[in-house]
Amino acid sequence: MALFGGIEAGGTKFVCAVGTGPDDVRAVTRFPTTTPAETIGRVIEFFRSQPEPMTAIGIGAFGPTDPDPASPTYGTITSTPKPGWQNTPLRKLVADALGVPVAFDTDVNAAALGEYTWGAARGIDTFIYLTVGTGIGGGAMVEGRMLHGLVHPEMGHIRVPHDWAVDPFPGFCPYHGDCLEGLAAGPALERRWGTRAETLPPDHPAWPLEAEYLAQALVSYILILSPKRIVIGGGVMHQPALFPLVRTRVKELLAGYVQSPAILEGIDTYIVPPALGDRAGVLGAIALAQGQR
Amino acid sequence: MALFGGIEAGGTKFVCAVGTGPDDVRAVTRFPTTTPAETIGRVIEFFRSQPEPMTAIGIGAFGPTDPDPASPTYGTITSTPKPGWQNTPLRKLVADALGVPVAFDTDVNAAALGEYTWGAARGIDTFIYLTVGTGIGGGAMVEGRMLHGLVHPEMGHIRVPHDWAVDPFPGFCPYHGDCLEGLAAGPALERRWGTRAETLPPDHPAWPLEAEYLAQALVSYILILSPKRIVIGGGVMHQPALFPLVRTRVKELLAGYVQSPAILEGIDTYIVPPALGDRAGVLGAIALAQGQR
Q1: How do residues B225-258 score in pLDDT, each as one tens digit?
Q2: In this structure, which topology does domain B4-110+278-290 adopt according to CATH?
Q3: Which chain A residues are closer than 8 Å to B126 by Cβ?
Q4: How far apart are CA B14 and CA B20, in angstroms?
Q5: Which of B180, B220, B271 is the mutation pick for testing A, counting most A CBs within 10 A?
Q6: Domain A123-273, CATH 3.30.420.40 — does that match?
Q7: Can you give the pTM of this predicted structure?
Q8: Domain limits, chain B
């Protein structure tokens, strides 16, 4: 019987799992992302130690990456600012060591695929998966296919209106300063308010401001990509006050322009958390492995 | 031998053509968009007067529309602000009168399909076609399929940074004020500078400002949709100074973040005018008809 491996290769931590889906996860491990040699060494050790061999493995990786199967550098982490990881051929190193087929995509595309296969986007052919955590990134399925395009989307780096009088925080993105990620990812909250996002109470002014930035971005996503649903995961979204604030503001900003019942009447099921929770990434990597079998 | 009809149904004028492609256009007519009854009457009269019957007809229409073939209102112009045109079943009226299959999509998706079939996007599976004229709209092909999603994109209505000190013009979009269309479509130039866009000389300050707004929007499109090329048509783009200004500013704004040779080294072939010129729309409608044959 076929058995699959999933690797959620994050910039902060790696998660590896073995199984066939959310109800059949046979082993899982987590460890911090250190050097490529040490980190990939632990990945290989984990899969070698399993009682049964993998049929295939999937990797959802932090980036920027090269996710094009036709490219000679397919599965490489390319121009990341993360020290030591530039031009790391992650997919090739895993495939060569374990001798099995390895599929590769961005971390957010993998999570999107997980939610499409088993989660909040089942049966929906055009949707976005956004994660709001240490960084902000988005994956998308469009008309039934994972979106890659020229390289892959970098939805977290779009510009959103920034009223300096209301929010003097300059943003922390090393490339763009006050892009969405620079203003609204976890580290932005921590630096702006002087405390970690998870310690901010639900009635703190941090949350309406966070909702404003996220809603402005979602409106751009909706107008450009016309998704049928938006799934938002990541640590910052663990604050329960945030989803209602974002939904309300998206409707206000669209001002009735997109005349779809999904938005006008069904916003609570249009902007949703991931059904797989924080397992979306690693389960999506397993789904990726299954697709390439 | 199969013969096709194309209808570019614009908010200002309709263009109808008969043929099989850009080198075989056998008849063409243009007339202003007046009432639905009069305008659609002229469409039907034109096709009835042809010596040969059409095998199929394609319509690329102004909107918002319902372009979903599975919907009971497929091919209807829905919530347009254009007087008299709300909920006009354009596709059905043409199909019933002429008794041939009629395919329907947005005007910008039709133009995109034209450029994909015969023009500047041949062989490119993920790209955007943008028109900058009386309004601003975008169509897209993603991984080989026309993007529709929830309804269809409304890329012209995204928000772009608006520095009121530099540009006190408030925008003219009735829904959003200073969205991209409100700041950068033809009527915005006319109202801001007091003269029609085509009369503004190439060294007029109108053009760097126009390039700034368009470049800001293109950067959002690139980060969200990752197109392999962007084709920009429409009357405002007839100013030759505009393309170089837009290309330069897009590279500056991306700041090297999207590390693709297509952008870093090939921006002149990445952001391009339509190869079919102002015929992209009506030829795209013929391509639409051929796809549905």
Answers
A1: 999 999 999 999 999 999 999 999 999 999 888 8
A2: Nucleotidyltransferase; domain 5 (3.30.420)
A3: 147-150
A4: 19
A5: B220
A6: yes
A7: 0.95
A8: 4-110+278-290, 123-273
